[in-house]
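Subject: Interface between my chains keeps coming out wrong

I've been trying for a while to get a sensible model of this assembly. When I model each chain on its own everything looks fine, but I need the whole thing in one frame so I can look at the contacts. Pasting all components below, labels as-is. Any help appreciated, I'm running out of ideas.
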Amino acid sequence: MPQPKLFRIIDKAVYDYRLIEEGDRILVGISGGKDSAALAHYFACRQKQGRERFSFAGLHVAADIGSPVSAELRRQFAQWGVPLAEMSVSVFGRLKPGHSMNCWWCSTQRRTELNSYAIAHGYNKIALGHHLDDMLETLLMNALGKGELSTMPPRLTYQKYPVTIIRPLCYADIPAIVEHAEAYSYSTATCTCGYQENSGRKDARARLAALTGGSYAHKRRLFEALKNIRPEYLP
Amino acid sequence: MPQPKLFRIIDKAVYDYRLIEEGDRILVGISGGKDSAALAHYFACRQKQGRERFSFAGLHVAADIGSPVSAELRRQFAQWGVPLAEMSVSVFGRLKPGHSMNCWWCSTQRRTELNSYAIAHGYNKIALGHHLDDMLETLLMNALGKGELSTMPPRLTYQKYPVTIIRPLCYADIPAIVEHAEAYSYSTATCTCGYQENSGRKDARARLAALTGGSYAHKRRLFEALKNIRPEYLP
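Reply #2:
Try treating it as a single job with all components included. I did that and got this:
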């Protein structure tokens, strides 16, 4: 079977940033959505190719809000050969008095559990499902809001923890992932909790669309520009 | 008389980038438009303040297309104490066979003359009227079109020539300049030649407006982000 188009896009990112290396033990953050499902599917296929020896498993950190991993997606994971561990955290229980629930708090709590689990179980890498649009939206939020040129990088080694964060979907935009998820009938859910006061990201998504006209070529060149910085021609 | 608001914006750029230094001999490129008129007016006022000893003069490089410097603007220059030299270049005469006229060719030919004049007459700096919007538009064109993070910097020392290019309007956007030009009744003209096949820049202007919503705060933070690059959080 030929490689799906999305997997060739991921292959390039894996090559460019050495995201999978011999002997890696990779924990994949599984949300129940299509981004992380595609990532798990990719790791399963990549492992079968035998290009390098590595192990991986998915971890779903369930919370008291958000969608669970559907029974059908569990069957797909089993079929692909993706081991799935699960744990749960009460994001409400951890909320400090006087604070209200929001996407940032929920995701931070779940990320903390993901990190702890990876360290406790000897994983050296954590793979996250952030994609090209996520990364460019963060770029715009940080530039326009904080006056800082930064985003979520494809590969980030923590200073404090013995794990490296990898984002193999860094070259894939939303349309590519949606097309792939439909073609492969992923049984995924989108978070529909009522606490998504995430107007900053919604706003950034609209700005990115306006800036690039939705063009994949423009998005990719904008991303490449971040690797091709010419200090002599900057303020 | 209090400093005009635009001049306080220019003051900050002059301070941040040391654009005017003791003993400077500055040649100001005069197009006949409001950007370079504001720049010449600023230099005349700055010189009267005596904050540093420097000399300056304007040079208008007339071409066989584009608007001349109006008689009324000449009177304003004389009133402000701005010396204005002039020369002319045939941008059509220099056009190579098979090529058609465009903004890039016209401005490159005029810039070459400006550079040569500055060097021949012992100027150590050339001041250009590019403003914040120009610089951010160039940033977007280079990022989306070339995959490169670069623009016209506020201060650029040529490798080949003994002159430094300065852009004191780097913190001023179009609305600030228009408001100033109206308040001070500048008698300026906008180039209306029929060869402005400059769709790349028009397109970039629309993208910048869509990205920032025209907000000066957003434009300034985007510019600040170029000075606040976090390599560890970039691809």
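Reply #3:
Confirming on my end. The two ends of chain A are 50 Å apart (CA to CA).
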